[in-house]
Amino acid sequence: MKSEGVDAKRLVARHRHNERELRQRQVDIRIREMEADIHSNNTPISKTVKHQPENSRKLLTKKVILAGKLVAIGVAALVAVKIASIVAGIIIVTALTWISYKLFFDSKKKP
Question: Is residue 38 within 8 Å of residue 32, measured between CB atoms?
């Protein structure tokens, strides 16, 4: 009985050892393949090309248009604030005038 258990353990250990050796051989083969690819002369090489920016005139035109849009939005915001402040002033003056009229000049006629 004990010898069967020892034999089974030896078989398992031998099997694991064989698996490790097989994995190691596969890794070695893959490393050799990769080294062969690195050192081979038939590797496709593409020539590097310096990045050519867009036409500088187009780029300048885009920047000018963007700056123009920004200025237009700023001016529109300022005009809107100015109009809003004028309207608010008119409303306040009208409300104060109406309240003053009601307090001081509107006569309460008693029948």
Answer: no
Using the structure block, give the residue that is written with the tokens 């920004």: 70
0.85 exceeded by pTM: no
Domain count along the chain? 2
Residue 108 structural domain? 55-111
Residues 61-92 have pLDDT tens digits of 999 999 999 999 999 999 999 999 999 999 99
Counted residue by residue, the chain has a size of 111
Residue 97 in domain = yes
Residue 46 forms part of a structural domain: no
From CA 72, how far away is CA 70, in angstroms rounded? 5
pLDDT tens per residue, range 13-24: 888 888 999 999
